[in-house]
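Researcher: Go.
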Amino acid sequence: MKKGLLITGDFEKAADALANQSFHGGIHLDICEGLFTMDPFIGDHTPVFWVYTFYAHLDAAQMYAIKLFDTHSNAVTVPQFVEMARWRASKFIHGIEKDVLECIRLAEIQIAKLNSTIEVLRRRRNNFMAHISPKLVFNRELLQREESLTMPQIREVLLEGGRIVNSLLHLWCKTSNQLRDSSSDDYKRVIAIINKHLCDEADRHEAEFNWHGGSAKIPRPKNCP
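Model: Structure:
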């Protein structure tokens, strides 16, 4: 795809595609944050499953975030979308050119604020998430000493990228795309089922000890009835 097509392509389709990345990345991060705060007792019950699930969602969230700000010349990104808006600034139906240019100015300020986090995400993508870099293979100790990221920092890139798109889309056609999913915490139902099973199991073992005249305090989750 040539740059001209990126700039002149369908504005609403580009907005929908970018917002979709923000939305799905946010779901992965919601799940990741939820598992991070899960009762360790439940996590230790099936540690391989929970550890791999946690990092799978964390990697996915980071990949969605960095795709919004990819540097590939053929990629549709938030900065490219801003340029699409600049190119058609005088053609917005629901905002005069002055308002559109001000929205673009604020978007560029916000992107600049995100740049340090974006750079870390880009290095992570290039070093080990999308590629097997020489650094990963031959200098892993150096890679492990690189700058860390928090989940709120990843969240900021995902959400702010989507908000920039929505702010310009609203001026274009008075619509915006959903960026958060209110039902992304349904994993809690699974955890609740496991929690109840482990509590019931502990109760049965303690009852068996008592029946034989002994006593025991069986380890159990924090939230047993």
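Model: The mean pLDDT is 92.
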